[in-house]
Structures are given as C-alpha cells and as structure tokens.
C-alpha cells in the first residue's frame, strides 16, 4: 500500500462513499467538501499504519467516521444541533424548501441528518452494504448489538420519512 | 417506501446511491495529499522546535539568576522554573505525537480515547497548579525565615499570580466541561422505544 497508483486507486474506490457519508454529517456544501478532504487526508495519514487486520472497508469507515466525529465535535455553533441530534428524532415537519425538492435522495439525506449520530452511522454503513460484522468492527460493538440497533434506527428513519411524507 | 421492510430498504439504498455530490470528479490526488502531509509535518516540527527554544530560553534565565544571585529564594525559584518548564515541554511534545497519525480505531475506542484525552487535559494542568501552589507556599516560608523585608512584596506578587491562575483554571475547566458535554451529546445512544414509553 505504498505506491502512488495503489493509493490513488484506493482513494478513488472509496471517495464516492465518503462523499455520501460526509453529506449525512454536513449540510453546508463548503463544509461538506472540507470534511471530505479531511477524511481523505486522514485516510492517507492512517494508511501506513494499516496492518490489514481488518477489511479495507472497515478500515476506511473507521477512519472516516472518526474524522467526522471530530468534525462535529469541533463545530462550536452547532451545539444546539448536536443536542437535538442526540435526542429522540425530531417529529417536526422538515423544512418547506426541502419538501419542494421532493427528490428521494434529499428526503433520505435530510431524515438521516435528523437522526442521532450513532443511528446515523449505523444506517449510512448499512446503506453502503457493509455487512453486520464490518459495521460491528467499525463501531466496536457486537454483531448482535448491530442487529438490535439497526432495527431501531430503521424504525426511527421510517418514522421521520413518514412525517416528511405527510401532507 | 412502505411496501415491506425489504422493499423499503431497497428503495432507500437506491435513493442513497442515486446521487453522490461531485463523486465523478477525477481523483488523482495522492501527490496533492503528500504535499499536504509534508506541510503538516513541517508545521508540527516547527512547533516542536519553537517549544524547545522557548524552554531553553527559560532554562538559561533560571540558570543565569541561580549563578548571579545564589541565595536560597532565588535557587528555589530557579529550580521551580526548571521543573515546570521541563514538565511543560514534555507535555507539549507528548501531546503533539498524535498530530502525524489519524485514528483507525473503532468508534467506541476512538470515543474512549477522546474522553481519556479530555481527562488528561484536566489532570495535567491541575498537577502543575498544585506544584505551583506548593512552590508559592514554600517560597513564602523561605522569605518569612530568611528575608522578612521581602515577604510582603513576594506575597503580593504570588497573590496576583494565584488570582490570574485561578481565573484561567475556572475558564479552562468550563471549556473542558463544554467539550465533554458536546462529546456526550454526539455519542448518546437514543433510548429504546419501550424506555421512552415507560418514561412518558
């Protein structure tokens, strides 16, 4: 994992997923791009220490999620957002502007951003087709725990999307 | 999105992958990242060199006074400057060791490390402040025994320093408390629906 070609391949392989992941953490396009760059840089710095004791995807998502957590923790003005994100999903209707842009992607993304961070992490990785084992390795929890939490997270997401879909 | 759980999930997955902002951008960025890493490392080294230079300047000042005015209070002061500077320098270099690596730990381990770091950021200055308080008490005792005429002046200077340190400590602990609350809020697992129902 030392040649530039290999590094380029790895970054290119995972960049789209990292961009989607960053979008679930950051609404502002400029900050989102910053976050993507920070994730790629963190990945680049962490690569030399990777001993292949876990799968490539596990490694990439560990680094990216840790970087995203640091990003959220360092966002001072967003403290209220964090409090809200940590609480039970907000049942209030989503913003009107979003309702007008009725794309499913945007609806899903907005709903995801309203979920508490632990649920958001679970769902984004499951949406990227990571196996329960990989998710468990990324989060440092058991596979059983992943299954239980994922069921709850899906219910919370369903609830948010249903609220969004109500006239 | 409400057909069956599996169909619903497939809908979500399609929606999730339907758009990835600017994902199609060409990605030959290793060279760019390497340049950034070199800048990052140079900056980390520059800070370390500055720390060492500042520490050496303090060592030199303390040594100068210890040689020029070899009285007990000055020697105590010089030794305390040496000790505190050495502790501060060690702490600064130690805390910068993570600057060159990014965490590939699991989220749980990463959060535990963040909490541990917050604890250390509180414990280290607390230890240094206790040392400073002990040094002040010892210094005042020395003045009281050997230079009573300087005791009043030393007490005022130590009092002023103690006041500044107390204000700073209060502000610093408040800041750490806010960071801790922020981390807790980020990592808090939502209560299971049953628990929520029983509360309400």
Description:
The complex is a heterodimer of chains A (167) and B (200). Chain A has 167 residues and is mainly alpha-helical. Chain A is 74% helix and 0% strand. Chain A has nine helices and no strands. The relative contact order of chain A is 0.12. Chain B has six helices and no strands. Chain B has helices at 5-17, 30-68, 72-95, 107-146, 148-187, 193-199. The radius of gyration of chain B is 27 Å and the shape is elongated. The two termini of chain B are 29 Å apart. In chain B, 10% of the residues are buried. The model of chain B has no long low-confidence stretch (mean pLDDT 82). Classes of the chains: A mainly alpha (167), B mainly alpha (200). Chains A and B meet through helix 1, helix 2, helix 3, helix 4 and helix 6 of A and helix 1, helix 2, helix 4 and helix 5 of B.
Ordered list of secondary-structure elements with their pairings:
The complex is a heterodimer of chains A (167) and B (200).
Chain A: H1 4-25, H2 29-46, H3 56-73, H4 79-86, H5 96-100, H6 104-113, H7 117-127, H8 132-139, H9 143-165
Chain B: H1 5-17, H2 30-68, H3 72-95, H4 107-146, H5 148-187, H6 193-199
Helix pairs in contact in B: 2-3, 3-4, 4-5
List key phrases describing it.
heterodimer, A: 167 residues, mainly alpha, globular, B: 200 residues, 6 helices, 82% helix
Based on secondary structure, the structural category of chain B is mainly alpha
N to C succession of SSEs of chain A: HHHHHHHHH
**Assembly of the depicted chains:** heterodimer
Major sheet of chain B: none
- Separation, N- and C-terminal Cα atoms of chain A: 52 Å
Supply the number of helical segments of chain A: 9
| Separate helix tally of chain B | 6
State the helical fraction of chain A: over 70%
As a percent range, the share of strand residues of chain A is under 5%
Structural class of chain A: mainly alpha
Low-confidence stretches of chain A: 77-91, 97-102
Relative helix content of chain B: over 70%
In the predicted model, the low-confidence regions of chain B spanning at least 5 consecutive residues are none
Q: Nearest-angstrom radius of gyration of chain A? A: 16 Å
- What overall form of chain B do the CA principal axes indicate? elongated
Mean pLDDT of chain B: 82
Spatial shape of chain A: globular
Q: How much beta of chain B, percentage-wise?
A: under 5%
Tally the beta strands of chain A: 0
Mean pLDDT of chain A: 80
Largest interface: A-B, 69 and 57 residues
